[in-house]
């Protein structure tokens, strides 16, 4: 057990987790209502929570806009001159040489950029409820675009820049986006990637897209952009295009845009964004989040868990103190804006809290494997939030690299995305945190929007455990009938009460919403659902120990976590099958020391086709083409048969057990 120092406890908003948790659990709605009152609303709500199976709606009747809280209200306070973002770009050979570009935005400056871009979007005809796809690398315009959409009530759909044209196409098509925002080219380590080309390919058959906005990331080429003539896409691609498609330079549009833009009044339950994520079946789902509940949940969680030096009064004067961290926090989150961590904890929550967020454009190994530690030293980072896969990769390189840097500014460390093994936890704690920074191992999901199971800095920690549920969150571990399992027993991780930033729905697919989260086939909870009881199925398995600490084991469905990236077995299998030589494929996740899990595929080839190393290389290429480099398979076996149920479903569980030399479990439904 790791006990926090008195200093940490003193500076924590939360001093006594247990007492506060139990007090709040008596009346979670009153708790969230009080938190909501710390934020700005255009009109108060009539009802804190409306639960109509299977939908929970928070702050019903209330009107707000998350951007009103993230930016507008700070314009009237001292926060206006505080830095919202410090962005450091990766070094790249350019006219400027090898220097790393730095861009800083105060809250005032960020607001101006957001207002201008919101006006640009409006001038292109974007209206409340329209969808806008953002396909950008880790540059400030990624955040500006999201905020500009939210400001005018448009729904943003950010697609991670590592996804391929096919993956992007599916996401644009499902969302029926009007606009796509991307770069022309951008640096990625020593390479230059052409995201415009990817977008061209993705949208060639999509008629909903009317405009593409291109951001120039590489300054060295800016000279030729003067008076840029949007080249006819028809000429560029030599293929038919949807009518009326226009390309624009971001900087051209912005140079003419007005700096004042009013913020759209939204219902608390109106959609804010769509974020596609992989599930166990079929195509990725568009997870839909809204303005009101989401803003309340993300606001509070980061503040309490990272002890963020906040501009808002805390909820409970008896247990928390306002603004008692004497230093100004520099909060460094290494996530990409393309994932939920970037949405909730780089964009919305830090801004609502009036914090200063530090972002680095490149990967932790570029231009050298000490870059994160160098940046922490240089910018005096106080709070650092990253993923286990990165910690494990950096740990392997030894202590000498981090030991070269002064990391004494650090106060709190965080982890997210996959289970962190105790060895990596202890290395992070000792070598990076010098045994004085508590580690916040935050368990949550794209769907939950906010931290759900997480320590607070004053908690006693066990390396490898994500501690206990956040205030107002009721978690449990259940068996396949929905009954709670005894301590130290593996169970399905479920949530038993609605929480404010839970997903509103699966976009265009309410059936999927119901079947994934409330009537999941793994669990027979008809009794509960009949009574309209709330039981959210997370798709994870976990154990709880004698002290009530949660130990997350991992996904219990066919979702694979590769370096924290969420990939569906079914999605990977269709990518394999899209190759002309493949008849059938089954994909499983195998443990990997650094990546957490790696992709292993079992492939049946079409009649007459011989397996070879060349074909394996081709298949890897095919999967990268269909999904993107994050989905690169590690192992491919050519096989004659796959274990199936009598109804023809591939039993991946059996393949996995066989592969790992584990007992096969119940095979009574196995056909062959
Ligand atoms: O399996 C859990 C794992 O990540 C899944 C959610 O993935 P995604 O929606 O991409 O969101 C990742 C960022 C929140 C979960 O179902 N996961 C996330 N955080 C943890 C974790 N597993 C163990 N420990 C965590 N701290």
From TrEMBL:
GO terms for biological process: acetyl-CoA biosynthetic process from acetate. GO terms for cellular component: cytosol. Keywords: Acetylation, ATP-binding, Ligase, Nucleotide-binding. Residues 571-649 form the AMP-binding enzyme C-terminal domain. Residues 81-499 form the AMP-dependent synthetase/ligase domain. InterPro entries: Ac_CoA_lig, ACAS_N, AMP-bd_C, AMP-bd_C_sf, AMP-binding_CS, AMP-dep_synth/lig_dom, ANL_N_sf. SUPFAM superfamilies: Acetyl-CoA synthetase-like (SSF56801). The keyword Ribonucleoprotein does not apply. Transmembrane segments: none annotated. Belongs to the ATP-dependent AMP-binding enzyme family. PANTHER family: ACETYL-COENZYME A SYNTHETASE, ACETYL-COENZYME A SYNTHETASE 1. This is Acetate--CoA ligase. The lineage of its organism: Bacteria, Candidatus Roizmaniibacteriota.
